Amino acid sequence: MSKEEKNTSPSSDYSQGIYDATSLGKPRMLVLGLQHMFAMFGATVLVPLITGLSVSTTLLCAGLGTLLFHLITGGKVPAFLGSSFAYLGGFAIVAPMLMDESGQQTVSNTEMLPYACAGVALSGLVYVVFSLLISVFGIRRIMKLFPPVVTGPIIIAIGLILAPSAITNCQSNWLLAFVALGTVIVCNIWGKGMIKILPILLGVLVSYVVALVTGAVDFSGVMQADWFGIPLSPKAMGLFAIDGSPEFISAVLTIVPIALATMMEHVGDVASISATVGKNFIRDPGLNRTLLGDGLATSMAGLLGGPSNTTYGENTGVLALTKIYDPRVIRIAAVFAMILSFSPKFDAIINSIPAGIIGGISFVLYGMISAIGVRNVVENQVDFTNSRNLIIAAVILVCALGFNSVGGLSFTVANVTINLSGLAIAAIAGILLNAVLPGNTYEFDDSTGTGEGASLRV
């Protein structure tokens, strides 16, 4: 009897992992699915709080995106698709949050959010293109274009660009910010089991209790919200912003290049899931199919007015903790997320979280984005004594931060004004330099599902 057959037998020893959760019974499968939903919850709802998107729409897109991903990959990969933090920089540039009349809370930029979502939708098509290229030319040849010396500095720049907004939110209530930040740090460093896996969610909950005690929560919106409603709002749908306007073009040029970094994140997450489960998903169902699933899920989310989707490392942590590797449990979590999305009351509760708490969570989150970029180049042993690598990284960082500080680069083509953000310019410059300068020795190893670029997580 094979190892996998042994682990799918109801009477077997589950110490090596369970690949067929039906042996546990439906009630336990529902509980396990609920656990996966809570694992993704804190990070997933944080993205709409920072960007101004709808929490309900985000949960719906996460659930639908996960089910679409499982459909395209043949239901083989136990991955959950939640909101990606990598696109926060693009949203901050295209549709920055606005201050309300009191100057204490930030509100959605309803005029520009649809354009940002349209950019997200088109960024998903980048995944589709690369999926096709991998199918035609092979994974090693395509991955050679995106070594860690390019993707690492781009990720570092994303976190640094976002840093000022974290401080701005913290300034509204430093007490709540420090409580949220401290809780995340304590849970992540000293927590055990699920506490260590859910630091963001616990950080929000603990600081929210403090906000309730200190009277910093406004419940007016919660009292007025309905218990049931449709989680889609035409005002934020990227579907209605694909109009060829200068705003649309600028949003696309700002947000689409971010997909180059998130695709590397995807590779790292799929490799991590492969190592956890003991199956090489890079080969079967294949990176081309997992990229296609992630890309189409992101395009769908953008068209519906949600943030980009990405495979979630939080849920990989739950897989490692529980040793329940059945993808059906993940699909149950997706259904739970979709059910929650139909409650405007729940959306209002999430939106009642004070800006100070968001600032405290963002304080560590944005720094971690940059730190992950540093880890990416360190773990992949990028040699910065090599002038080629040093020049590529230097140009990427200066372009991203420098051009961002002056509002990007604007120029006119056929009477249309186009604005390239610092991130877009940095991505273009990095890819071109990597392609032109001699000495590109990067190789991706698909035999184990890992490579020099496979350790990324944003």
From TrEMBL:
Q: Which InterPro entries match?
A: NCS2 (IPR006043), Xan_ur_permease (IPR006042)
UniProt keyword terms in alphabetical order: Membrane, Transmembrane, Transmembrane helix, Transport
Question: Which residue windows are transmembrane per the record?
Answer: 53-72, 79-98, 113-138, 145-167, 173-190, 197-217, 237-260, 329-346, 352-378, 390-411, 417-437
Which regions form coiled coils? none
How does the record classify its membrane topology? Multi-pass membrane protein
Q: Where in or outside the cell is it found?
A: Membrane
Its principal location? Answer: membrane
GO CC terms, sorted: plasma membrane
One GO molecular function term of this record is:
xanthine transmembrane transporter activity
In terms of superkingdom, the source organism counts as Bacteria
* Keyword hit for Membrane: yes
PANTHER family (alphabetical): PURINE PERMEASE C1399.01C-RELATED
Q: Which family does it belong to?
A: Belongs to the nucleobase:cation symporter-2 (NCS2) (TC 2.A.40) family.
- The name on file for this protein is Uracil permease
Identify the species of origin: Allofournierella massiliensis
